[in-house]
Amino acid sequence: MMLEIKGLIKKYGEFTAVDDIALHIDEGEIVGLLGPNGAGKSTTISMIATLFKPDSGEILFEGKDIVKNPKVIQPFIGYVPQEIALYETLSGYENLKYFGALYGLNGKALKDQIMRISEIIGIGDRLKDRVSTYSGGMKRRINIGVGLLHNPRLVIMDEPTVGIDPQSRNHILDTVKKLKTEGISVLYTSHYMEEVEALCERIYIMDHGKIIANGTQDALLEQSKIQSGMKLKFEKPVAQIVDQIKAISWVTKVKVLDEYEIAIQSTGNGNSHKDILKAIMAMDSGLVSFDIQKPDLEQVFLHMTGRGLRD
Amino acid sequence: MLKLKLRLLKDNTTLYVIMILMSLLLAGVFGNAFGGNNKGTIFIEDTTKSVLNADLIHDLEGEGSFNIKLVTHEEGLKRVSGREGLMLIQLSDSLKIYELKPTLERYQIVKILQDTRSAQNALEQYSEQIYQIVSEHSDIKVNKSEWVQTVKAKVKAYEESQAVFTLDQQAFEADPLSHYDPKIHSMIGMTLFFVTYSLLFTVGDYLEDRRLHTLDRMMVSPISRFQILTANVVPAFLVGAFQIVIMILCGKFIFGIQWGEQVGLILVIGIMYIFTMTSLSFFIVSLVKNMTQLGAISPIILTGMGMLGGCMWPLEIINSKILLSLASLTPHKWAISGIESLMITGHVSKQMVSSLGILFLMGCIYMILAVRMLNYKISD
Question: How is residue A284 annotated by DSSP?
Answer without folding.
Answer: T
